[in-house]
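Late entry, evening session. Most of the bench is empty. Finally got around to the prediction I had been postponing all week. Sequence below, unchanged from the version circulated by S.P.
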Amino acid sequence: MSSALLNSSLLQTLLCLVLCFALLSLLVSTLAEIVNSYYNERGAQLYKIISRLFDDNININFGQLLYNHPMITSLRKNINSLPQYISDTMFSQVIIEIIGNYSRNYSFDETAGAIKLASSNADIFERFKEGVSKMHYTPLKLMLMNMADRTESLSKDEHDRLAILESQIQHWYNDQMDRTSGWFKDLMRKRLRWIAFVVAITLNVDAIHLFSTLYTNPALRSDITAIAEQVADNYEKQKADTTITALQRAYNAAAAAETGKPTPDTNVLNRLIQKATQVEQMKTQQDSARLALLKSADTTLNLIGEINFPIGWTKRTPPILFFTHTSHYSAWACIWQVLLYIIGLLITAFSISVGAPFWFDVLLKLVNVRRAGKKPTTNTSN
């Protein structure tokens, strides 16, 4: 690949376009997380999955009882919320305790006016096995009985049996989570597309107009390329941190970028996000996660505005451009321009729905390719 191609206007334009898609996709992903947090989609989906595991239409649904266990209730942000994540270790421990408690004997103490629990010398594994035996026969009961039988065949030690039983339940739980994660991903993929389409229209991001403007404007292209390289460098540093998600790496890389320009006037979407942020700040700390997401969205929008991409509802961008230059177009030309505008919006919406990590990875690769083609500086003083 020649040096001329690596430093061409086309590569620079693609680099600027990818930066725009990366930031917009980061905004879309953040907005999707805000929607998920508002409706508690992850928590509701997890509740349905766990309830379905123990729903045999005959016995007590231990999955629903699990959500009343103190270890699980401590994960709730408030009384009306559901935990968005339950580890396999916590799930196995709580389920064994719940089924084991099902085998206990209870009585009512009239003197104290409270339920009295009969003492039992059985260990946790034995109580679990007895709790399973009290269940009415269903395939669920048979599966739990087989788990207990396999555990007994592997070890007679009380501690080892409990560890083996927990391991089997964890394996069963993880298999179910892997199987159902695809359903949630499909739901999120559809939601990302809708949010991406709304963002593309709200910010008026016509990919075709964006590309042509960047390609014919060397000064703007040069300014955005410098910022793209800065964001790519930030992202490369963030990739070394494996303790955070890919989305958080992308946000950190964008948040650390400095354009040296003042924050622009807020657009409609930015004003809505700022208003929502103010509302969340007035609430209790239980909404701190959603407040952080709103601030992330606002920061990303400000960065997009500071970079001065040729987007937005201005006289220089379609479709307002069509109405201010109608004398330059014939009727068929106007129809063609409108069609191109719609296609440009659809290209933008589809592109930014792919996800921020994808575009940030592409941005990093393009920056590395461009740098590989730069000619080394030579000392002409000698």
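Two things to note before I forget:
The longest helix spans residues 158-202.
The mean pLDDT is 83.
Will write this up properly tomorrow.
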